[in-house]
Amino acid sequence: MTVPLSITELTHRLDYLLGPVLSSRRTAAPLAERLAALGREQQDFVLHWVEVIDRSNYEMAYQFAAAAPAALAKMDTAAAEAWILEALDTYDRDGLYHGSQVFKQIDLWLPSAADAHAAAFAQHAVVLELYACGLAGRRMKLDVAAEPYTDTETLFLPPRIAVFNDAAANFNLYKVLITLLWAQGRYGTFHTDVIAACAAYADQHRALSLLSHFETLRLESRIAAVLPGIGRDLARLRGHTSDPRCAVLQDPSATVQDSLRLLTGLYDQFEVPSLPHHTTLRAEASSTRAARLKRERSALAEALAQLLPEQATDKAPQATAGDRIEIQAKPAPGASGDFDVEIRIDGMPMAPPGHVAQLLDSILQDLGEIPDDYLHAAGSGNQAQATDNESADNGTAIANDETGTHLYNEWDHKRRHYRKDWCLLRELDVAPVDNGFVEDTLARYRPQVVQLKRSFEMLRDEDRLLKRQATGDDIDFDALVAGYADLKSGMELPDRLLTRRHKAERDLAALFMIDMSGSTKGWINDAERESLVMLCEALEVLGDRYAIYGFSGVTRKRCEIFRIKRFDEAYDDNVKQRIAGITPQDYTRMGVAIRHLTKLLNGVDARTRLLVTLSDGKPDDYSDHYRGEYGIEDTRQALIEAHHTGIKPFCITIDHEARDYLPHLYGPVNWTLVDHVERLPLKVADIYRRLTA
Q1: Domains identified in the chain and CATH numbers
Q2: Model-level pTM greater than 0.85?
Q3: Which segments of 519-585 does DSSP mark as H helices, in order?
């Protein structure tokens, strides 16, 4: 048995770990005295997490060390880890005060943490998130909070549920809560500003609680019609607590306005029953929904601009996008809340592309219709005008709203947990440069380009000879000889004696992720651009779908992806000028870039999807601990996530130290080192050919 650490030993360790927040009045001795009463395993657990939390904030580490002995007296280490991670997530999201409160309010965790039948959010998060996204048809994030609520983009759930003496029933309650929170957005709870509607009441908290209860009643009826299984779960949870005064909410046509009318009539008479699936309404929903509507309105304008063909010469020159585009959305049959959508451009019907259909569905979920003022393509004159509550002097018309901004989690290997919404990433276009770079490159490498094109043509036209076939075009003499020998030995002659040619069908999409960090300045940048020129020339022969994006950034708050060529974009003069315009930027924060490009690549319908990275060094960033092991492990986790979605990552590097870290990131065979920079242009296309042969 390992001997526990003494007070003196603990004091020395805590002095070292917590030094920045200790003083003559605030010493490590009281903490050490309380930790000395723990067993050695618990002491090591606390010291390990103090060191981990130090990396986020020393004061948070101190608060944990102060609270840990009392917590570990009442919960096991698994429950304690969930408690710690919730505090760190709260700190990341809301700051030091709120994070420290989680450590101080241990009692909020203890009743459920001690229950052996409790379902833990951390344990089931992946499955629950898949369930939520499947319901919504758009990305829904999950997070934890003391009470369940939604801001219409994130569903907040309790960290642990221990309502029942059965773990499966507690897990199922998570699914019920997710369904209810999803239904609030799907069936119109936020079509009105519920917070403002309750502000007029003397007790706003009571009004919100009543309205939430009435909305739950209304939504239970809608859910039962489209998800009968969850509907039965809701009926069991409610029992016999229905009130005849609320019967109007069981009508499938009931809306949030019916709930508001009941609130007005029953505010002084109704007591909300205590139910395990009670949810709350928060002000965040209104602001998040408004931001999403603004973002999606701009995105729809861009999508319509791409769909809109050139105006016919005989069409009136003053015809606007609004005159040419018509979108009809009708509720689908049944009570699902879905819509049948048809787009007409210049009177001709067309099926909306997948990403446009998803965008329209999201807008319909929020508004129940596509307003007329949404039917303006980007660049049309009407769109630049301020509408509704947006004034012309606010400096940000919808058309100029920053739509290419995304939040991504980041893996902290010491926490063994993600930092939620930690990295802010922006999509930008590379500024095109018309300097003759592409033409000069093609002239310099003309013989090699001709050879590459020829090799890619052979790859495109390659047939495979399939042997030992039951039907075919010719005799398989190898199979015939073997079969004759079998026949002589008394066996039956096999029936697979033919060969046939099989045309290899390529169903492949490749995304090239180009390092645009500052370390590529000079001839590395030239070699990268030359590589892309030769690669594009070869791929145009092959016909594979491909896209090119650069990446760079400074710290987690300014991660950048640079669009060079999208999947739906032709290799034209604009793309060539963007390749010429690739310039070194800042640092190499790779994890967030991989996560974003994985998302883009997964939006392409292809049997094989490749993510090929072209880089000159290991993951790196300025400050915030990304340099070193943290960045390596975050990048590795992002690659694992990509692999789990069916993407095949590969890395081409010119870093001579790559053998020290790339096998850990990509595996032993999914990377290659180009020894000399000057060989890079000649190697990249050939490596791709071998990868996809």
Answers
A1: 7-113 (no CATH), 119-282 (no CATH), 285-311+319-377 (no CATH), 437-455+506-692 (3.40.50.410), 465-503 (no CATH)
A2: no
A3: 523-542, 573-580
